[in-house]
TrEMBL record:
UniProt main location, coarse: cytoplasm
Name of the featured protein: UDP-N-acetylglucosamine 1-carboxyvinyltransferase
Subcellular location(s) per record: Cytoplasm
The keyword Chaperone is annotated on this UniProt entry: no
Gene behind the chain: murA
Binding-site list for phosphoenolpyruvate: 22-23
Species name: Candidatus Schekmanbacteria bacterium RIFCSPLOWO2_12_FULL_38_15
GO biological process, one term: cell division
Length: 417
């Protein structure tokens, strides 16, 4: 099992380019199940989660190849299965995104209840209630969701809490349903409008994406699309925080600054200098930063996927901060590993009180989930002496060649087999 070894203390400087967004690529790949013909998807990040999703689509019968420019070509004309088995779903919750497209196009689906990071309960009951509102019959048997419908029909769907994958799944189901579907309290994350843009390219009729109310008028059939995946806002934020925690100066290219607005505001509160352009962000950090509180919430609030990395930064801030998690109930598992590095953190329920320390010390630590692994790497980049991060298969799920990108910025970091 691979480990990442870091000799910290280097100020990171230089330029880094952001990869395509994992959380956009996966639902857009699922959308290829809605039509026949070759779909062209550009700027797909090469990640473990993407590889897992490719295996799932191939199992279902999709034909997937790459052209000379590295673009993915996905053809759903020979779908021969409507089942997503446990072995392809157990490591990644996003696998449930095939449920809506399969029911919409083929009238049936059998999808294993999904897995993923152990950051708390992420039930798919909202997906199921939404499909039932569109006329699907749902059964739960032996760890599988079995959905069937002769033809989905438009309906009104209300989410008790906004859900990104739930919104995406039901958007894809509704585009082929008869009549009009309205999704209330829909998620507003940037990945939602991007999926809607792709579906419109296919011929879907969607309005309101990016707001809490999405309206979809079903169509008879859809056509193939060509699309370039937008930059990953969480990777962008991770490199912004890397500049902050190492007192660095990093120019982040091929990004969307507007998608990182809440993080930019928080970094400025700490005294870190952040400047923005159309598709770039420069982050310059002083020797010492001020502590500031942060509370996660759905977009456009502070993203839960940046909570662990921001906490690593606060470990070295001047003063005391409170980091509050409101999205997932078990997303503080990185705290025990940061404590091993000399951090001063006290957890009380869904909040962590972080008292800044003068320095962190390198240690052997273990990644518990995707974003926790990023926080430990950030801490290691700033720590004295050597840090060894194990179970880095988590980070390979969401970051493309992260150690190589940090090396180009001057970090002493390597992957050890």
């Amino acid at each position: 099992m691979d480990k990442i070894v870091i000799n910290g203390g280097e100020r990171l400087k230089g330029e880094v380019r952001i990869s395509g967004a994992k959380n956009s690529a996966l639902p857009i790949m699922a959308a290829t199940l809605l039509c026949e013909g070759v779909n062209v998807i550009k700027n797909v990040p090469r990640l473990k989660d993407v590889d897992t999703f490719i295996k799932l689509l191939k199992h279902i019968g999709a034909e997937i190849s790459m052209d000379a420019e590295g673009n993915f070509l996905v053809d759903g004309k020979r779908i021969n299965s409507c089942e997503a088995p446990y072995e392809h779903v157990k490591t990644m919750r996003a696998s449930v995104l095939v449920l809506g497209p399969l029911v919409a196009r083929y009238g049936r689906a059998r999808v294993s209840l999904p897995g993923g990071c152990a950051i708390g309960a992420r039930p798919i009951n909202l997906h199921i209630k939404g499909l039932e509102a569109l006329g699907a019959e749902i059964q739960l048997e032996h760890g599988y969701v079995i959905a069937s419908a002769e033809k989905l029909k438009g309906g009104n769907i209300y989410f008790d809490i906004p859900t990104v994958t739930g919104t995406e799944n039901l958007m894809m189901a509704a585009v082929l349903a008869e009549g009009i579907t309205v999704i209330e309290n829909a998620a507003c994350e940037p990945e939602i409008p991007e999926l809607a843009e792709v579906l419109r390219k296919m011929g879907a009729r969607i309005t309101g994406d990016g707001t809490g109310r999405i309206e979809i008028e079903g169509v008879e059939s859809l056509s193939p699309f060509e699309h370039r995946i937008m930059p990953d806002r969480i990777e962008t934020g991770t490199f912004m925080l890397a500049a902050g925690i190492t007192c660095g100066n990093i120019l982040i290219k091929d990004c969307v600054p507007a998608h990182c607005h809440s993080l930019i505001l928080k970094l400025r509160e700490t005294g870190i200098e952040v400047t923005e352009g159309d598709n770039w962000i420069r982050v310059v950090s002083p020797e010492k930063i001020k502590a500031t509180d942060v509370k996660t919430s759905p977009y456009p609030g502070f993203p839960t996927d940046m909570q662990a990395q921001f906490m690593a930064l606060m470990c070295l801030a001047d003063g005391m901060s409170v980091v509050t998690e409101t999205v997932f109930e078990n997303r503080m598992m990185h705290v025990s590993e940061l404590l091993r590095m000399g951090a001063d953190i006290t957890v009380d329920g869904n909040s962590a009180v972080v008292k800044g320390v003068k320095y962190l010390s390198g240690a052997q630590v273990m990644a518990t989930d995707l974003r926790a692994s990023a926080s430990l790497i950030l801490a290691g980049l700033a720590a004295q002496n050597e840090t060894i991060v194990s179970r880095v298969y988590h980070i390979d799920r969401g970051y493309e060649r992260i150690e190589e990108k940090f090396q180009k910025l001057g970090a002493k970091i390597k992957r050890v087999k």
